[in-house]
Write a structure and sequence with these properties.
There is one protein chain. This protein is α/β, with parallel strands linked by helices. The protein contains seven helices and five strands. It has a five-stranded parallel beta sheet, sandwiched between helices. It is globular and about 40 Å long. About 13% of the residues have low confidence.
Length: 161
């Protein structure tokens, strides 16, 4: 029934908890897992030349430790976490031994819309998101990404808290 599970990450500790949950569920169901990261540019003019910065191992370790401890990230760590979300997810997947996994990065100004679109394009049977992420200001002004995903998704959504 759950042939393909998609999990959306943004680099926040809670998104990596969602990834852990997705890998556990995926292992139990024998599912393929798609890890999606939606990068939001500061300015729409940055879309064509958007580049990820390198996430150093010591920064990765701090972010991972805070994810495990459910601690908040500093502003600097948030920037590094968002930029290195896929790298961190790949390390977590390798450490867990999860093999039926793929990673996808998209750039869009509307993360919730991109997540829902990708879940349809990728034929996801379920979608997993964290209840909150790095975008605290945008959540306050525009509404929560997870709430928008729940409202617009065509497949079941699991929200990790």
């Amino acid at each position: 029934m759950l042939n393909k599970i998609m999990v959306a990450i943004d680099g926040s500790p809670l998104s990596f908890q969602a990834l852990d949950f997705a890998m556990g569920l995926g292992k139990a169901c024998g599912s393929r897992l798609l890890v999606l990261h939606v990068s939001v540019p500061f300015d729409a003019s940055q879309l064509p030349q958007y580049k990820m910065e390198k996430l150093e191992d010591d920064v990765y370790e701090r972010i991972l430790n805070k994810a495990t401890a459910k601690a908040k990230l500093t502003t600097e760590e948030m920037g590094h976490a968002e930029a290195g979300a896929i790298k961190t997810a790949k390390k977590k997947a390798a450490a867990s031994g999860y093999e039926m996994i793929e990673f996808k990065e998209v750039v869009d100004r509307e993360p919730a819309k991109a997540i829902v679109q990708q879940s349809v394009l990728q034929a996801a049977d379920a979608l997993i998101v964290g209840s909150s992420g790095l975008g605290l200001l945008s959540a306050a002004l525009l509404g929560s990404v997870s709430n928008s995903v729940i409202a617009n998704s065509r497949c079941p959504v699991i929200v990790v808290r």
